[in-house]
Each structure stands twice: as C-alpha cells, then as structure tokens.
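Today's session is about reading a structure prediction critically. Students often jump straight to the picture, but the first step is always the sequence itself: look for stretches that repeat, for charged clusters, for runs of hydrophobic residues. Only then move on to the predicted structure, which in these notes is written as discrete structure tokens rather than atom positions. Here is the chain we will use throughout the hour.
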Amino acid sequence: MRPRPLPLALLAMAALLAVKLHGAWTEATLVSPAAASGPAPAPSAPPPPAPARPAATPAAPEAPSPEAAAERAILEALRARRAEVEAREAALAEREVIAAAAERRIAARLEEIAAMQARFESEARTRDERAEQGWRGLVRTYEAMRPREAAAILEELDQGVAVPVMERMREAKVAPVLAAMRPERARALTAELARARARRD
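Below is the predicted structure for this chain, in token form.
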C-alpha cells in the first residue's frame, strides 16, 4: 500500500521545526551569560591623589627626672670647680714665672753691687795705701828733724794733720817732740793721740 503524501509532509515540517528550535535554544544558551552580565564597564578614572599629610609636630621634650637633674647639677658644679682650679693654677704659674724673673733680676743686681763694692774696696785700699805712703813720708821727715824743730812745726799745724803724723812716729821720737812743745799744746796733742789709738785698737 503506498503512503499518503500529507502525513509525510507534516513529519518533514515537524522535523525541520525541531531542528530550528534546537538551534535557537543552543544560541540562547551561549549568548545568555554575556547578556546577563550586561555591557562591559567603562575603564574607571584614576583615583584622586591622596591629600598631603600635615608635617608632624615635634613632641614636647619630656621633663628630666630628679635623678637626671641632680646628676646634671653635679656635673655643672664639677666643671665650675675644675675651671676655678685651672684658673688658680694658671695664676700660680704666672706668679712663679714673675717671681723667678724677679729673683734673676735681684741676683744680677746683687752681683753688680758686689762687683761695684769690690771695686770700691779695691780703690779705697789703693787710696789708703797711697795716703799711708804719704803719711809715712811725712813721719820720716819729722823723725829726721831735731825734736825742737819738729815741735815748733807741729805746734802750728792743725790737729787733723799733727795727730796722724805723731801717731805714726815711733814713741822714742814722739816724747822729745812733746817735751819741746808748750805745755797746753802738749796736753791737747797727748789727749788726741790717746783717743786716736783707742779708736784704732
């Protein structure tokens, strides 16, 4: 028996509709995740710069503890004491230098004075020796004279001259000269001779 053309056509149309429905369902399945997520978001703008942080305010110094304050006070006192000691040592050293310089000047001056004194003494000895030589010459002259002649001259001389001459004369020569003088003059010269010899002894 031959099949009917109408039922075959319906079957073919049903098969074609099923193929189309299957394709549409597959496409809907593939596209739906992208559609569900919506359009791609636009690139976000860069974040605004962070505001500048204000400069940190320095913290106030902490108050020192009593122990630290006491230690600092002791250190300051020691520094002051050390400065005072150093100043005293410097003053003492300066005074020692000045004293040493003064001692050197005094020693030099004493040496000069000693040299001057030695020179003066030497000159005085020389003068005394010359003076003594002069007196000795006078003494020899008067000793060589006769007692009366010597007494006549010595009576007229000043005692500052007559006494030194008669003091240097030998006693054996002085006695005749005094005997030849006037008594008052002889007494005066005798007293002066005694005092001169006492001063010399």
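Discussion point for the tutorial: Helices lie at 5-37, 66-144, 147-156, 159-168, 171-179, 183-200.
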